[in-house]
């Protein structure tokens, strides 16, 4: 249903020429010629894609919560892919360029020096992006050879497109087998890996419908990595990665990452050098043989190095270059060149670090390297993200994967059904209003009233009791003093619940404390139970609380317990949520270093920009110190990831009345801060995921955090 809507809407928006009798689709034209009003066409396309993303998330929920037969999973993926396999290419016209380049090669032209325009009046030229008319091929000799074979064995352009699509589908089948194998080797959920990689909307839209040559490259690359992880077959893996590079150059990184563990395991420096040279020679020899056998030699390397970047509107480095030009007034071409070169250099430096540091396994490091190159490539396209995501899927399957899911979902929606040509048509025809109406229709189609009227089931809790919840991780030196200070200020019945994720002696200290103080209890979460980080610990504390009011504070004494009475008074005065704020008059963050204070303020302001109304209700949305009425929370909506639980509460519960009281953030006296670069990256992923989950079009698709048992 979802992919059928997307195909119908995309075809009607101009992906197929109108009036083709008796055909599923026919060659589109440039400029774009929609056969249906764009309001309806775009509404159908994006509604279908939104529904596909929602179905994908729901499929993950099923796969992660119960055993699903692989055959059933394969049938679901086939059902989703079928409309894309039968309909016109969507979101890009690159496959028409492949057909033109194949025809060019088949007729004896030098595709590395001439573009498809050299064909003259060929029908295929009417459908390809004008940017590629005079552009030489930048793909490897194997793909050019395959393109020529496709052209020589098809009667027309549509026949060529169908053959490219079937090659892509075969590539995805190979990729699925490799992903399944890699997940098994990493001890991950292999079914979830297949869902993440193959059922991914980004994969279905761009590799099945779009038939991009990434499908062929990834099939050989993933197979090479899966095989090459077996020491006795490492050489086979390197050879396959080199073959993949002869399809599309990014795969050459697979040679380096597969060979490096073998190189560094050498017993002497001389052997290290010899092995490194041997691996490089092997990879280059395979690429050279591929060029020799296909007859294209090394000309493709010159063509690739000399090619001008295509003006891709999603290119991160191009956006940075344009911004630099706007701010500084410097020459635009110079700023673009600097930004694009800097992006590639940065990606290269990080890749070398990933390779040499050896902190991650080869597939994980390779996945991150390819993802970075995809993001910083001068001509970034959404399907480039699959270079790395296909490797990260099997190595992280079964985890929350917030960033993975959010990036895939957003990237599948950032292109128009016929590519950038439709955008140009909209601007030229001044039909921006039509796009706005289509988006409004999309919101209506994807609005889920069930979530909008979701009721919060009442839980029997004591109105007089206050539950003080303290998430802890390696805080043995602080918990006794914290308990004493809470007891000293409590003017009401209370319970003190420590939810502990520690790997030191903290659990023993808490057990002793609980045995001597009846108000104290603790929950120790093992590795398998540490979902959501410290935010997940807070939610577990909410579930265990017996009081109607819960107060959350850190276990490091940087949140002074003496502020608890002010928070409780605010709740009893009628507020649903009371935040202890460092940013309001009377508050301060003197306990933070200057650099951390600046970062905290910048992060706080950024989140308020993303959630202006929801997070704008307090001056300090990143505070971890607050009180809340538990009967006003729907705990099923809370899917934290890391320690910023208040952001999750505020964003998912816009109806809460919020008060605040000032507090002074103290310096840590004992223990070590848990804030680091990885927590910062985790926070960014959480905010992206949260923005996605709380947007109206995505209502009803949250993936319950309790399915994911990793911190």
- Backbone structural class: alpha/beta
What would you report as the Rg, rounded to the nearest angstrom? 28 Å
Number of helices: 28
How much of the residues is beta strand, in percent? 5-15%
Overall geometry comes to elongated
For the biggest sheet, the summary is: 7 strands, mixed
How many β-strand runs? 7
State the strand order across the main sheet. 3-2-1-4-6-5-7
Number of domains: 2
Low-pLDDT regions: 445-458, 699-711
In percent, how helical is the residue content? 55-70%
Round the mean pLDDT to the nearest integer and report it: 84
Report how far the terminal alpha carbons are from each other.
36 Å
Describe the structure.
By secondary structure, the chain is of the alpha/beta class. Helices cover 55% and strands 6% of the residues. The chain is built from 28 helices and seven strands. Strand 2, helix 23 and strand 3 (520-524) form a beta-alpha-beta unit. Helix 3 (70-86) crosses helix 8 (201-209) and helix 6 runs antiparallel to helix 7. It is elongated. The two termini are 36 Å apart.
How would you concisely characterize the structure shown here?
The chain is α/β, with parallel strands linked by helices and 711 residues long. It contains 28 helices and seven strands.
List key phrases describing it.
single chain; 711 residues; alpha/beta; Spore Coat Polysaccharide Biosynthesis Protein SpsA, Chain A; 2 domains; 7-stranded mixed sheet; 28 helices; 7 strands; disordered C terminus
